[in-house]
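Researcher: Next entry in the queue.
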Amino acid sequence: MKRDWIEWWKRAGVRAVKTMAQTMVAMLPVAATIMEVNWGTVIGTAALAGVASFATSLAGLPELEDR
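Model: Structure for this entry, 67 residues:
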């Protein structure tokens, strides 16, 4: 059972990092057109997206359902 949790954390972590990167990339053009990029806001929003991704992963990861 311990191995299943390790695999879950790995996959949920990869998903969260991808979500954070997508959020940062999506925010940059908007921030750049309105004003100078506020990196604190961009990074904070990306971190919040990562937390939301982990929370969503608690409901289940499709990548692990086929096991």
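Model: The chain has a mean pLDDT of 80.
Researcher: Noted, moving on.
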